[in-house]
Amino acid sequence: MVNTEFIEALASKAPTPGGGGASAYVGALASALASMVGNLTVGKKKYADVEERVQAELLELEATRLRLLELIDADAEAFAPLAAAYGLPRGTEEETAAQRAALQVALVDACEVPLEIMRQCVQVIESCVFLGRHGSVLAVSDAGAGAVLAKAALLAASLNVRINIGSMDDEARAAAYREQMEDLIAAGSALADDVYADVVERLG
C-alpha cells in the first residue's frame, strides 16, 4: 500500500525532489489526515449540525491536496533554471552579468513556489482548526497530527524562501517575499499550536 517512489527519489543524490517538494508532500499528507477526520464525521447524526460545513471542508481539502501534489513538480521545475543559472560561466564581465541576470529571473519562481506551498499549508491548518473542534471525537488526535504536519511543512517551505531572497538584487521584491513568508508563518504556526494544545488537553 505504501508507495516509496517519492521517498526513494528524495533520498537519492538527485537535486530534486528536495526540501520544497518534501514540504509539499508533507502538506498533502496533512491534508489527507484532515480529510480522514471529515470523512469519519459526515453522515453521523451526532454531527448533523456541522454536516454542511464538514462537506465544504472536505471539498477544499481535496483541492488543496491536489494543489500540493502539483507543487512537488512545480518546485522541481523552478529549481532547474536556478541550478542552470548558478552553473553559467563567469569568466568575463559579460558572462558574469549574464549569469547574474539569469539568476535574478530564476529566483522569482524559486520563491513563488514555496510561498504557494506555505499558503496551501495554512489552508490545511485552518481546516484542522474546525475539524479538531467539531469533527468526530474518535479522530481528534488525527486533526492534531494534521495540524502539526502542516506546520512542519509550512516552516520547511519557508527555508526555501529565505535562502532565495538572500540572493535577490531587487530589495523591494525580496522584502515583499520576506513579509509574505513571515505573515504566513505567524498565522499558520499560531493556529497549529492552538490545535495541538487543544487536542492534548482533550486527550488528557
UniProtKB/TrEMBL annotation:
Residue ranges of domain Cyclodeaminase/cyclohydrolase in the record: 4-182
MF (Gene Ontology): catalytic activity
InterPro entries xrefs: Cyclodeamin/CycHdrlase, Formintransfe-cycloase-like_sf
Domain of life: Bacteria
A UniProt-annotated Pfam family: FTCD_C
Name the record gives this protein: Cyclodeaminase/cyclohydrolase domain-containing protein
